[in-house]
Amino acid sequence: MAVAGGGLGLLGSRPALPAVGADYDVVIVGAGVAGMTAAQLLSRAGPGLKVLVLEARDRVGGRLLTLHDRNVLPSHGVEVGAQFIHGSQAPSWELIKRYDIATRPRVPDGEAKFRFLDGSRPDWDRLEALHQEAGEALASEIGPDVSYQAFVETLTADPREREMMYTEALSWSAEPDRISARAVIKDGALWNDWHDQDFQVIGGYSSLAERMAAEIEGRIQLQSQVTDIFYRRGLAGIRYKYRGITTALTCRQLIVTTPVGVLQGGGVEIQPPVPASTQRAIDSLEMGQAVVVPMIFSEPFWGADAAPGAWSDYADRISFYFPHPPQAGGNAVLGWFTGAAAQELSDLGPEAGLARVIRWLQEASGQRGLADKLAWHYFKDWVTDPYTLGSYSFTRPGGHGQRQVLAEPVADTLYFAGEATAPPPHYQTVHGAYLSGKRVAQQVAGTLKVGEVQL
Ligand SMILES: Cc1cc2nc3c(=O)[nH]c(=O)nc-3n(C[C@H](O)[C@H](O)[C@H](O)COP(=O)(O)OP(=O)(O)OC[C@H]3O[C@@H](n4cnc5c(N)ncnc54)[C@H](O)[C@@H]3O)c2cc1C
């Protein structure tokens, strides 16, 4: 996290903020699921708390982003952010049901039809056996937490099998040499015990964000990029750019829901520096890389044996799948790129990146001339998005267990929320963001002594 070295100058030269006269009871930075959940709950708590959400973008939803284009896309649009509700037990069903939002179970991956880019098919049984071996080896391991790659290298597996095992890291959107082995294996086991199947939001995930925002209408200020935070017990000051013009306000309680990428280098300076334990927690996390490229083709070029399966390289850095059930999806293919492949596309940029994507898709499908059949596409680079600087948070080696530290209040005034602060295995998800919004609303309500908050 960038921390201001000297006086912030936010409130002139005074060394401390005045104890009275805050503009708001609660200010929340970020109108994603975490921020809007906290805002909803706190707006309803107590005797009329004054709550304001400051959001840098010109839209709400953060990493919920559904594209709509009536001319080419199916009526429900296409997701370039969160894709699925993960599991029939996901806590975010509370929201989905509250707004009566239509969903459908995800069409199964079609494992039998899934194939790698070289045309071979995965040996699922062997992969399962390797994962079991990894889990047992880790359970007996007492040494320091290492990277997942270093851990896999200790197992008896050939290079291709190792690459297949790296899927586990890439599914957390991380390169295997960057992520904690404990996080992949232990949190992965928790996830597998808990998660059953995925669901899609038929109207698109952005519709959920819009419904949430409607409930707190008048309390969200868009195009407001927070640049500086100053806090002491009971009072915080925020400097932000509203449509490019620098302005400031104060509040009694401040909730920061910006993604970890923004906390680590996204231009938000905090004064005084957060406690060493909080800083360590921030440093123990990292944003994964993802580039998402939905494409609509003028005709289906894939054979019957491909749909509704998918193509992927061994470790899932490059994968293509069908984003919608065949009857609902038009001729849509979703290009999904993580880790080094996402970085490669991000470095190339939208134009040269698309050419690379088409080349990979031709290799995967065995077809030629796909650029001529491309009717529409979108290139969403989460790596360079200034308000995420990555896809979602993963745990660095040695960082396992630090997320709950980030969820602890600082001076009973500054709070962090967002997917990165959700407990395992729920971080990285929409429902994890939702849980964190509920958790932080309870913490703030407790400090302000306004009683329980209820959805
Ligand atoms: C490609 C992709 C696919 C995903 N797939 C899934 C999935 O299938 N299922 C699932 O459950 N989850 C998925 N996720 C993760 C999920 O989208 C996130 O975990 C969740 O939306 C995070 O919500 P949040 O409120 O914590 O953060 P965000 O949604 O990122 O909200 C934070 C907000 O803070 C704002 N902000 C940032 N900096 C500033 C600043 N300086 N000043 C003011 N505002 C600022 C941002 O603009 C943003 O609106 C996916 C994410 C991505 C990127």
Explain what this protein looks like in three dimensions.
Strands 1, 2, 9, 10, 11, 12, 13 and 22 form an eight-stranded mixed sheet that branches. This protein has two domains: 247 residues, FAD/NAD(P)-binding domain; 165 residues, Polyamine Oxidase, Chain A, domain 2. With 455 residues, it is of the alpha/beta class. The N terminus is likely disordered. The site of flavin-adenine dinucleotide (FAD) has 42 residues, from helix 1, strand 10, strand 15 and helix 14.
Mean pLDDT: 89
CATH class of the largest domain: Alpha Beta
Q: Structural class, please? A: alpha/beta
Bound molecules: flavin-adenine dinucleotide
Estimated radius of gyration: 23 Å
What is the helical fraction, as a range of percent? 25-40%
Low-confidence stretches: 1-19
**DSSP strand tally:** 22
**Cα-to-Cα separation, first versus last residue:** 32 Å
Indicate the overall shape.
globular
Q: So, the CATH homologous superfamily of the largest domain?
A: FAD/NAD(P)-binding domain
Would you tell me which CATH topology of the largest domain applies?
FAD/NAD(P)-binding domain
Fraction in beta strands? 15-25%
Domain unit count: 2
Report the CATH architecture of the largest domain: 3-Layer(bba) Sandwich
Give the biggest sheet.
8 strands, mixed
**Count of alpha and pi helical runs:** 14
